[in-house]
Amino acid sequence: MKVIASSLRKGNVVDQDGKLYVILIAENIHPGKGNSVTQLDMRRISDGVKVSERYRTTETVERAFVDESDHTFLYADGEGYHFMNPETFDQVLVPESVVGDAAPYLIENMTVAVSIYDGVAISLELPQRATFEVMETEPVTKGQTASASYKPAVLSNGLRTQVPPHIAAGTRIVVLTADGSYVERAKD
Question: Own/partner pairs for 121-126, CB < 8 Å, 24+ apart?
């Protein structure tokens, strides 16, 4: 099915010259002068080669239809990452190359949208936010204003992020899965 380039999003699958590509980054660029363009960074599903393409925003692109459904993350092992469809209880193995940068954000029992084409997992989309515990950070400094500065912290998933000065080790915080940035203190 043909769709306009500006409507494509991360995780969509496009058919280009008979090969399938999963979109890693989709960015609409509106320069001050000239035509608007859509910049797509894609990974070829067959061999994992990454390519970058630019389209005019009104240009049409062939979108491949894939089975996209919610799956629950079970565990990771040497083979890859295991997910289960909560309705059919079918398990899907997602290779490490498909999970990529999302791996540290996967939490047991997390619901993730997995795209499957011809029985093979080709992409996954995490929820926008995830909750982790701060494992270590600098101690709270008295007199520091909350709006002026952030301090480094290591989360329970091993990632580093910047948190406000009032956050101490042991506090659970919400981060964006897109870039790991601090959103708020967890309400649980």
Answer: 121/83, 121/92, 121/93, 121/94, 121/95, 122/13, 122/20, 122/22, 122/45, 122/66, 122/98, 123/11, 123/13, 123/22, 123/98, 124/11, 124/83, 124/94, 124/98, 124/99, 125/10, 125/11, 126/102, 126/177
pTM of the model: 0.70
pLDDT, tens digit (0-9, with 9 covering 90-100), for 127-178? 999 999 999 988 776 666 555 678 899 999 889 999 988 888 899 999 998 8
Rg (CA), the chain: 20
